Amino acid sequence: MLHQFYPQVLHDYRYELNKDMHLAAAHFIPASAAGKCTNIHGHTYVINITIAGDKLDRTGFLIDFKLLKDIVHKRFDHSLLNDHREFGDTDTSDPESFPTTEVVAKTIWEMIQRELDKLHNKPRCLQVLVRETPTSYVVYRPKEEDFSDE
Ligand SMILES: Nc1nc2c(c(=O)[nH]1)N=C([C@H](O)[C@H](O)COP(=O)(O)OP(=O)(O)OP(=O)(O)O)CN2
Ligand SMILES: [Zn+2]
């Protein structure tokens, strides 16, 4: 597992948890301006997820690390991202659904926060970092209005 320093999110919560994972997946960007990326190709994505909150659950967890891996890795590992409904397999005209690094990061945030909203201790996902290649990564940070409890 690659260990690296990540950009920090400023917050006031008591607890902050981070989960790293690797994801082997293929994708293509269905826009001619994407050049060689219009061709199907693969990456070993490196993902870091930051969760924060003030309360622990009955297990003493902010959230089980395993849940985060289940939400993301189980769904996307060894798959073609374009095949997933989140990435517009039915409508390739919306760039907000192309599996770019930006959209992958935003989509992972949405999937995780949807699950966190079901938990009593109300943890929040504050940051998703997606590294697509050794030289390129994106950080997604939600705005306050993106949380449904606001
Ligand atoms: N803003 C974005 N730009 C690019 C994305 C993206 O998702 N968001 N994606 C790609 C390609 O999919 C490609 O896989 C990654 O591109 P790049 O980092 O340029 O890859 P290289 O290995 O060629 O980069 P080096 O500079 O040689 O390290 C392109 N752009
Ligand atoms: Zn790519």
TrEMBL record:
Active site positions: C37 (proton acceptor), H78 (charge relay system), E132 (charge relay system)
Pathway where this protein functions: Purine metabolism; 7-cyano-7-deazaguanine biosynthesis
Keywords, sorted A to Z: Lyase, Metal-binding, Zinc
Record GO terms (molecular function): 6-carboxytetrahydropterin synthase activity; metal ion binding
Reaction(s) the record says it catalyses: 7,8-dihydroneopterin 3'-triphosphate + H2O = 6-carboxy-5,6,7,8-tetrahydropterin + triphosphate + acetaldehyde + 2 H(+)
Gene3D superfamilies in the record: 6-pyruvoyl tetrahydropterin synthase/QueD
Superkingdom to which the source organism belongs: Bacteria
Cofactor: Zn(2+)
Record-linked InterPro entries: 6-PTP_synth/QueD, 6-PTP_synth/QueD_sf
Catalytic class of the enzyme: lyase
Binding-site positions, Zn(2+): H27, H41, H43
EC number(s) recorded for this UniProt protein: 4.1.2.50
Cofactor annotation comment: Binds 1 zinc ion per subunit.
Similarity annotation: Belongs to the PTPS family. QueD subfamily.
Record's protein name: 6-carboxy-5,6,7,8-tetrahydropterin synthase
Organism lineage: Bacteria, Bacillati, Bacillota, Bacilli, Bacillales
